[in-house]
Design brief:
By secondary structure, the chain is of the alpha/beta class. The chain has two domains: 193 residues, 3-Layer(aba) Sandwich (Rossmann fold); 173 residues, Glycogen Phosphorylase B (Rossmann fold, 3-Layer(aba) Sandwich). 46% of the residues lie in helices and 16% in strands. It has 17 helices and 14 strands. The strands form two sheets. Strands 3-2-1-4-5-6-7 form a seven-stranded parallel sheet, with helices on both faces. The longest helix is centred in the first third of the chain and has 22 residues. It is elongated.
């Protein structure tokens, strides 16, 4: 019945579907790929591993996994699908060397799904985070194709909606060979919706499977140091206002500003110059801030290492509509994080580090100041937060190996 209704609706509304896709800058080729017209070469007699990541956040989450799968399963073909244009662009940029095919996920109708599976012939499909597509689940079960949710999560809002329709979602969830969640809370949500308890397990979060970058330069930080990482236009002023208030109370406090885009260096210099503080550029091989108040990080590839030297960090892109940047670059060094309210790009990670008291999301510059001041004034509070960073990272490790073992078990 689900297949019949979805196919009927697809055929009735197909012109409207095409219209909205083209309005969203999808090409006719992309639309054809979503209809399942995918060309494959050299896939005969090969095992095919497919990863689906709907958009940018999910592509970023599976990046290391795909690369690890490429190393582990050298003879297999690896397919990446996305649902959005932006996801497709990031997948091509980051995973072209690891994947044999990067294409679009099919429209979830029987005809499109069957056509797609006929062409790609996957042995296993791993869907990042949570997308429950009825027809792909039904068809994979018919064909004995393993279908898994990895890094699974369900927001409270989505869960409340799904719970009202448990009678609908329970049979859909049971089409999945495995459901592997980010957290115990997510695990409980899947189980309460009717997922099979024998194949639903906690795997932790793939995004936490990162390692500290090797710090291969010396930097003198005898004073306290705040790092403002990946700032965007409009955020440098906020950082400097907070720094000014902190500096009046904590005179040994230094600041590093690292703009997200180096094209903004002149803009940042003008803002810093007007502040009256002494400053210089990292590109001048500055190794000490003894004679400086502020260092502008204008070099490539060093931001990740600077977290080793700071006492705490502010993560930019969070006081505008950018959606924030990855706080784990700081947490991996056990350095507490402060972020503005715009964290949509990493809301799952922020939820974890907030619950662990390893980071703070503030609404405005006053809250920013209050948390930063407490880091600098209350040694016990700072040490507890720093220890929480270490503990939360340790508790979330292992997701990458978990999924590789799932792949190994299913492919063997």
């Amino acid at each position: 019945m689900i297949g019949f209704i979805s196919e009927l609706l697809y055929r009735i509304f197909y012109p409207l579907l095409v219209y909205f896709h083209k309005a969203g800058n999808y090409t006719q080729e992309a639309i054809n790929l979503k209809k399942g017209y995918v060309k494959t070469e050299g896939f005969e007699n090969c095992q095919v591993i497919m990863f689906h990541a709907v958009s940018v956040g999910e592509v970023n989450a599976i990046e290391k996994l795909v690369k690890k799968a490429r190393e582990t399963f050298k003879d297999a073909k690896i397919v990446i699908t996305t649902g959005t244009n932006t996801g497709q662009e990031i997948a091509i940029k980051k995973l072209s060397e690891s994947a044999d095919l990067i294409t679009y996920f099919p429209f979830d109708t029987p005809s499109c799904v069957k056509r797609f599976l006929d062409n790609v012939k996957p042995n296993i499909i791993m869907v990042a985070e949570t997308e429950i597509w009825p027809n792909i689940g039904i068809e994979c079960k018919k064909r004995n194709i393993k279908l898994c949710i990895i890094n699974g999560r369900i927001s409270d809002r989505t869960y409340n909606s799904y719970k009202k329709l448990k009678f609908f979602f329970k049979p859909l969830l049971n089409n999945y060979s495995g459901i592997y969640s980010q957290s115990s809370e997510d695990l409980d949500k899947f189980l309460s919706l009717g997922a099979n308890p024998d194949t639903t397990k906690r795997m932790n979060n793939l995004k936490f499977d990162i390692t500290r970058p090797e710090v291969n330069f010396e930097f003198d930080k005898s004073d306290k140091l705040m790092l403002a990482a990946s700032t965007h236009s409009g955020e440098d002023e906020i950082v400097l206002n907070v720094y000014k208030k902190l500096k009046s109370k904590h005179q040994n406090l230094k600041l590093i500003i690292a703009p997200r885009h180096l094209t903004r260096i002149n803009e940042v210099e003008n803002i810093v110059g007007e502040s009256g503080y002494t400053y210089d550029f990292r590109s001048k091989d500055v190794k000490s801030m003894n004679d400086l108040d502020i260092l502008i990080l204008d070099t490539m590839g060093e931001l990740g290492k600077m977290f080793a030297y700071c006492d705490f960090s502010f993560i930019g892109g969070s006081f505008n509509k950018t959606g924030g940047h990855n706080p784990l670059e700081s947490v991996v060094f056990s350095k507490p994080v402060i972020s503005g309210p715009s964290i949509n790009n990493f809301k799952d990670i922020y939820a974890i580090i907030k619950n662990a008291n390893a980071g703070f999301v503030v609404k405005n510059s006053d809250e920013f100041y209050n948390i930063a001041d407490k880091f600098l004034s209350d040694t016990q509070f700072y040490n507890q937060t720093s220890n929480s960073c270490t503990e939360v990272f340790s508790s979330q490790q292992g997701a990458l190996d978990f999924v590789i073992n799932v792949l190994r078990d299913n492919l063997n």
